[in-house]
């Protein structure tokens, strides 16, 4: 089907590490991802960009040529640690200048021997991500030979990549301009459509007269094909700008097994899994319920999380189904012989990803330590409309709203750029596995924020918010020793590890890193409109 993106772990898990060379030319052109004409970015003519597949220990050398007419750009490798390669992280204003029009930049970095999982890359310039400048990046875990000298049998018969995102029919720059006005009252723009692997199917009759679109109705909804006898690994990425989503596949046994970059979680078979927020990934183990396989078709259902929508957009169908055609169905004879399905496991209706726990207990040294060995930083984030900013919504981290300086921070020493208008706390580098930095991110806004930290995975010791319709407050100030975390004790036993954590409305998240990756690393809300409005900062680990 048009949505199938089959991955090829067999080309990577049995071989030695090597260097991959890519030459990418970025251009733009009008396409119809969901039937509606839209100017989108292309990488070597592809929308979305090509999928990168590699193994841990591989080197990537990606020469990016900016073939755009009017904009600079930069590419970020979301979730990769970029150890020793801070300068290739793609964060404009922090690590590099935009690649100028007609210019080139070659990203060179090694994927660590111990890093594998589902990643993605995307532009970190302006709002290009929302108009298609992104793609999948899958790092396969190398297979080691078993006792018999042969590689183990793969756990999955097939792997698929599923990039899901909300879509705006207008150019993202126009959408941002709409948001950055006093009259938006800081209500985020609600998307018009949704895509899987760059393909959707818009119901042209939903278009609103106020926003005329050039829409060609697709005669059938795009779908997928699955083999009813195969066990699949689905690598799901939210490549969107605003909306989280929940997904379900009636008739499938679906189990979330990893989140973000290869972090294993306790498996809970479920009928639906969510909410996956922009920037986050989840790997699902999927097999077909045998009793269901008499039926030839089912659907992948994507339901956008409407908690992020503060006004109605009649142009959007927020819950969409994509047909799945099942092949290789068992014959009636083989089904009637009374065999017990091997996958008959109890299934819960819904697995809430925010409750995910690490499959492996944290190593003992993660236990609460003497205060002197754990440093703590407290952040407050909010969106403010201030008179001196013409009441335009601006994202703040503590008292700063990020504005990129003309030269990237890493190009000059700290004294040169440190002037109180940029929030880039300094954290001493430590190679000790017992030195931690705990970061409390308090969210004072009515909407949640998925925060992404570059260069690191972190342990989520706690994340909590008040009920989504409540006006109550749920901040956590760890320096007030009389007040416990409102969401209950922090989890030092089996905290989930991630690189993008959802900080709920009027709530907080407590994340813990080992500050062992030197560099200046961006920490920002991954909702594109908030990030663009300044909800961003940096962490400087080590250096001068
Ligand atoms: Cu946000």
From TrEMBL:
Keywords: Copper, Metal-binding, Oxidoreductase. The keyword Oxidoreductase applies. One of its GO terms (molecular function) is oxidoreductase activity. Pfam families: Cu-oxidase (PF00394), Cu-oxidase_2 (PF07731), Cu-oxidase_3 (PF07732). Transmembrane segments: none annotated. Residues 31-143, 159-285, 412-541 form the Plastocyanin-like domain. InterPro entries: Cu-oxidase-like_N (IPR011707), Cu-oxidase_2nd (IPR001117), Cu-oxidase_C (IPR011706), Cu-oxidase_fam (IPR045087), Cu_oxidase_CS (IPR033138), Cu_oxidase_Cu_BS (IPR002355), Cupredoxin (IPR008972). Belongs to the multicopper oxidase family. This is Multicopper oxidase. It comes from Viridothelium virens (Speckled blister lichen).
């Amino acid at each position: 089907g048009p949505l199938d993106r089959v991955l090829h772990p067999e080309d990577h898990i049995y071989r030695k590490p090597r260097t991959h060379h890519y030459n990418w030319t970025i251009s733009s052109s009008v396409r119809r991802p969901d039937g509606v004409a839209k100017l989108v970015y292309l990488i070597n003519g592809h929308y979305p960009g090509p999928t990168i597949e590699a193994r841990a220990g591989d080197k990537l050398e990606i020469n990016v040529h900016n073939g755009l007419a009017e904009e600079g750009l930069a590419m970020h490798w979301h979730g990769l640690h970029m150890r020793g390669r801070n300068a290739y992280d793609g964060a404009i204003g922090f690590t590099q200048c935009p690649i100028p029009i007609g210019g080139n930049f070659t990203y060179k970095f090694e994927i660590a021997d111990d890093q594998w999982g589902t990643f993605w890359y995307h532009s970190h310039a302006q709002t290009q991500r929302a108009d298609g400048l992104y793609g999948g990046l899958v790092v396969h875990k190398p297979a080691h030979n078993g006792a018999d000298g042969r590689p183990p049998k793969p756990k999955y018969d097939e792997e698929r990549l599923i990039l899901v995102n909300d879509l705006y029919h207008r150019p993202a720059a126009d959408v941002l301009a709409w948001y950055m006005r006093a009259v938006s009252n800081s209500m985020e723009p609600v998307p018009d459509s949704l895509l899987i692997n760059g393909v959707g199917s818009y119901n042209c009759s939903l278009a609103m007269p106020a926003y005329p679109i050039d829409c060609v109705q697709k005669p059938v909804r795009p779908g997928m094909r699955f083999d009813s006898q195969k066990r699949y690994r689905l690598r799901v990425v939210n490549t969107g700008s605003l909306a989280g989503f929940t997904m379900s596949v009636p008739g499938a046994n679906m189990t979330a097994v990893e989140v973000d970059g290869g972090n294993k979680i306790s498996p809970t078979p479920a009928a639906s899994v969510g909410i996956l927020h922009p920037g986050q990934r989840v790997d699902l183990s999927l097999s077909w319920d045998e009793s269901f396989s008499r039926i030839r078709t089912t659907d992948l259902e994507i339901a956008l999380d409407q908690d992020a929508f503060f006004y109605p957009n009649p142009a959007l169908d927020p819950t969409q189904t994509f047909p799945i055609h099942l092949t290789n169905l068992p014959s009636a004879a083989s089904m009637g012989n009374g065999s017990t399905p091997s996958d008959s496991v109890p299934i819960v209706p819904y697995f809430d990803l925010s409750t995910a726990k690490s499959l492996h207990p944290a190593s003992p040294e993660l236990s609460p330590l003497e205060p002197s060995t754990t440093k703590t930083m407290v952040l407050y984030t909010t969106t403010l409309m201030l008179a001196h900013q013409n009441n335009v919504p601006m994202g703040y981290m503590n008292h700063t709203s990020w504005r990129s300086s003309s030269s990237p921070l890493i190009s000059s020493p700290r004294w040169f750029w440190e002037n109180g208008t940029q929030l880039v706390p300094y954290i001493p580098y430590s190679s000790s596995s017992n030195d931690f930095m705990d970061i409390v991110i308090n969210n004072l806004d009515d909407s949640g924020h998925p925060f992404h930290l570059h260069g690191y995975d972190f342990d989520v010791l706690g994340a909590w918010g008040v009920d989504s319709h409540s006006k109550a407050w749920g901040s956590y100030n760890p320096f007030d020793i009389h007040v416990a975390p409102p969401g209950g004790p922090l989890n030092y036993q089996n905290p989930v590890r991630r690189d993008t954590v959802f900080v709920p409305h009027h709530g907080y998240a407590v994340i813990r890193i080992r500050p062992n990756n030197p560099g200046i690393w961006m920490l920002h809300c991954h909702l594109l409109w908030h990030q663009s409005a300044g909800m961003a900062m940096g962490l400087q680990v080590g250096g001068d």
